[in-house]
Fold this protein.
Amino acid sequence: MPTILREDFCGTFSLCCEWTKLNSKFVAHGVDLDDEPIAYGLEHYAPELSKSQRDRLTIHQNNVLNPGLPKADIICAMNFSHYIFKDRATLKSYFANCLATLNSGGILIADAFGGSRCGEANEESTKHKGFTYYWDQESFDPITNYAQYYIHFKLEGEKKREKVFSYDWRMWSLPELREIMEEAGFKKTQVYWEGSTKAGTGNGIFRPSEKGEECEAWIAYVIGEK
Ligand SMILES: C[S@@+](CC[C@H](N)C(=O)[O-])C[C@H]1O[C@@H](n2cnc3c(N)ncnc32)[C@H](O)[C@@H]1O
């Protein structure tokens, strides 16, 4: 049974926290460069853990490209964070670093998104209780696949807070992610693709698939097996 999770690009390390809650033997390591989200997680999320859960959680302020990261059975790169690596050589060295620090039989889970709407400028807003969330696709360059995205927020009764989060990314495709993982030495890769409801929207259930379908916007998971 896998017991050690490493959450790369962990930010406020919420996945790590959830992992420690699943089983009293589960250990979690979070890795992030930036002390600001780490400090937020330490102030707001870590105190919600029991002593046993907190004792099994370690946060490392470090670059995911560095050698010597903690070994793990599962490494997660979530929220498309690896899209920050804009050239193949750097993304490959990241995947190779994951492979080197995975225990035998371990897996890397990296999420991905795309679809025709990601290749155009647009802004969509979603209303939540007390605030509105904006996903702003400012630009996409089809020659480089570089994209600039922002998240804005507007709290009820306040001015819109622009560019609270900024994402300067390369839009990697699913076959590229698989190929680069395989070039880095993963013995097998697999895409988990989301199923559809009768209305044609995503149903939240992701299964191993070799064939997807055209969508305006999709999210998927790419798994690399050591
Ligand atoms: C898109 S955020 C995702 C945060 C978190 N995974 C989540 O879902 O909330 C990307 C995170 O990656 C971190 N980051 C960027 N480059 C990094 C690197 N080379 N090594 C470690 N962390 C990095 C940033 O500091 C930021 O917290």
Remarks:
- The domain at 4-114+171-225 is CATH 3.40.50.150 (Rossmann fold).
- The two ends are 15 Å apart (CA to CA).
